[in-house]
Structure formats: C-alpha cells, structure tokens
C-alpha cells in the first residue's frame, strides 16, 4: 500500500484527506476561490463579521472592526473596488497552502497582488493570512 499510489486505500485517503498539500491546484482553488470572493465582498461592504468568519483565531484577533473599516475606506478611496482576479501560483507547505493571484481594481490601472494562506483547523479550511498589495 505505502509504495503504490493507486492502492485503493491510498486513493480513498487522497480523495477525502483534509491535507492541503495533497490537493490538486484545481481542488485548492475550488476551496480558496469562494473564500477569497467572500472576503472581498465583505471588504467591499465593510462587513466585519462576514469578513472574519473564515479566519483563524489568530488572524481574527488582529483584524478588529475598527482596523477593517480604516483599511477598507482607504483602499476604496485610492483604488476603488476589487475587480477581476487570476491565479498566479499555489505554494504547498507542510501545514498550509499559499495562493497568489493577480488582482485588479476599478479606479486604478495596473496589476496588484492578492494572497491568502489556508490552514486546516477542526476539519475546516480557514484563513491564517490574507493581503492585497
């Protein structure tokens, strides 16, 4: 079984494992895309509760309601709202996956970077870091 990736137990483990490192890019994006969409929509709406619902406790403690409001008002005034996004790379680490996208805004020209780090906690994918710059 250990040396045979096609052994039925290995195939079942791969399909149902919460281990992000073993997921395909497509599988990771099926999870990460909707989470990032939700974060960006909540950011646009300046909705703190919705914005942090998929965060780790560590990240949730850093992104206070006041901090989110300040950051959102600043980027919306300077850059507008989030526009299209294209995946550039996925980095697999032993305990997390980092996804990097090209990100566009509605008011300014140019390509920006959106990144998110997903980890597994209590059989759930949650965000431990996220940033657009």
Provide an overview of this structure:
With about 130 residues, the chain is of the alpha+beta class. It has one domain (about 10-130): Roll (Nuclear Transport Factor 2, Chain: A). The chain has helices at about 10-15, 25-45, 50, 55-60, 65-80, and strands spanning about 80-90, 95-105, 110-120, 125-130. A 4-stranded antiparallel beta sheet has the order 1-2-3-4. The protein is about 40% helix and about 30% strand. The protein has 5 helices and 4 strands.
Annotated CATH topology: Nuclear Transport Factor 2, Chain: A
- The portion of residues forming beta strands comes to 25-35%
Looking at the overall shape, the CATH architecture is Roll
CATH level-1 class: Alpha Beta
Extract low-pLDDT stretches: 7-17
Strands of the largest sheet, in order across it? Answer: 1-2-3-4
Radius of gyration: 17 Å
N- to C-terminal distance: 45 Å
How is the biggest beta sheet arranged?
A: 4 strands, antiparallel
Shape: globular
Structural class of the secondary elements? alpha+beta
Spell out the helices and strands N to C: HHHHHEEEE
Average pLDDT number: 89
Highlighted features:
4 strands, 41% helix, alpha+beta, globular, 4-stranded antiparallel sheet, 133 residues
């Amino acid at each position: 079984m250990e040396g045979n990736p096609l052994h039925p137990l290995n195939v079942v483990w791969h399909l149902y494992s919460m281990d992000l490192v073993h997921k395909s890019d497509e599988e990771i994006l099926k999870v990460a895309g909707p989470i990032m969409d939700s974060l960006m929509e909540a950011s646009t709406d300046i909705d703190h509760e919705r914005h942090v619902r998929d965060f780790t406790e560590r990240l949730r403690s850093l992104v206070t309601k006041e901090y989110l409001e300040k950051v959102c008002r600043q980027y919306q005034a300077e850059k507008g709202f989030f526009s299209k996004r294209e995946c550039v790379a996925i980095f697999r680490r032993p305990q997390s996956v980092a996804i990097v996208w090209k990100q566009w805004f509605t008011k300014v020209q140019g390509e920006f970077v959106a990144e998110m780090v997903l980890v597994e906690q209590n059989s759930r994918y949650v965000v431990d870091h996220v940033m657009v710059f």
